[in-house]
Amino acid sequence: MVLSDTSTGKPKNKQAGNRNPRESFSRQSMKPGLEARIAATRILAAVIDRKTSLDGMLDPEHGNPAFLPLNDADRGLVKAILQSALRHLPRIDAIIGQLLDNPLPEGARSLHHLLVVAAAQMLYLDVPDHSAVDLAVEQASGDPRSRRFAKLVNAILRRIGREKSALLASVEDLPCMPEWFMQRLTDVYGEEHALAIAASQLEPPTIDLTVKSDAIGWAERLGGQIMPSGSIRLDRFRGSIPSLEGFDEGAWWVQDAAAALPAQLFGDLSGKHVADLCAAPGGKTAQLVMAGGNVLAVEQSKSRLKRLEGNLARLALSAEIRCVNLLAMDAAESFDAILLDAPCSSTGTTRRHPDVLWTKDLSDITKLASVQEGLLRHALTLLKPGGRLVFSNCSIDPTEGEDVVSRVLADDAGLQLVPIDPADWPGLETAITPKGEFRTTPAMLPDLGGLDGFYAAVIAKT
After folding, report:
1. What are 264-283's pLDDT values in tens digits?
2. Could you tell me the sign of the dihedral formed by the alpha carbons of 291, 293, 298, 302, in that order?
3. CA torsion, ordered 305, 311, 316, 321, to nearest 10 deg
4. Where would a tag sit more exposed on the chain, N or C end, judged by fewer CB atoms within 10 A?
5. Which run of H or E residues covers position 122?
6. Against a cut of 0.70, is the pTM above it?
7. Which residues neighbour 182 within 8 Å (Cβ) at sequence distance 6 or greater?
């Protein structure tokens, strides 16, 4: 199916109408589809050059000013372009490099991003080549920074159109990861597994559901399959999630199969006082409630707290909700069970969020690991003797998982790791480390569509 390529209406607000004063475009005189390409180029620049998260810029109400005035069809096109561009960026860069007689000037970043946006459409989307080329040349011609390169843009993109198959073949062995992260994966997992992780992020992300009950029945009704985690994976679903049977009555919620694992490590929580310390958006909170716990859901972000409240309301599940930084919680308030799904680099979710690898670096991972360690140490002061804490996150770097837990356990003889028994997790045995921790990577379960990368460990307090 060819992606929609439409003109747009008036800006919704003054901010939305802002444009780069260096670009001589008038919204009224733009060719249909040009405004979407300009938006994609600006947002790509913000991700690559300013390390800005993509999700925030694509927010329908508070996103990037270039994105807000677009209609729904153009917004969808921008998202598709950016996802493809970021997911395949090393290969796109290599192809563009092959076609340049000389590297682009250092100050030509806007031109570089323009070429990437156009090439992504031609190489990886169903946008007609002539449309991508025409609009890219128009965009370059209207930007004083790139105007003198308009003929170069035309020449490079026309060659991509003519030589597409050969160019794609020339880069098919190039991992679609930044060099720093590919090296890190190789150091941790070995070259073969690292290459498998890199390849897995090119696969389309799956949609997994956690159901309240009757997983077999819901899998049949929704046309999905049951994963080893107990989740239901939909089969190539492309519609609207709220339109699915069971959504309105709160029979299930969207949650990656790997993300559904940590809360299950507690088992039956009936009658127990339970804390979910980084609770939003609420999937794990819902699991803890369904396991019988008397749950306190803690979240310090007011906006994320509203999302948590909305999700629990739709699911008709009840938990005490508190807006507070968990570090401010008093140790006098203690819990039988604590789930700490800590903020992290999110490097295990690159199938869904390909911008992550371009907005983070190794120093971010180190800083986040320090934050996680502080949160874990404080969370353990809230745990009753005899209680259990599950520490988890969606990073695939052990700096943010195994290393954090190892340091904390080494400092307190009253804590011990509770090994996870592979026999309790048929189909996921390879995801359990020799020490008994969960460590999933995106390369696991390829025949079922893969998993997000996740880490989880169970800590007991004596």
Report:
1. 999 999 999 999 999 999 99
2. positive
3. -10
4. N
5. helix 109-124
6. yes
7. 175, 194, 198
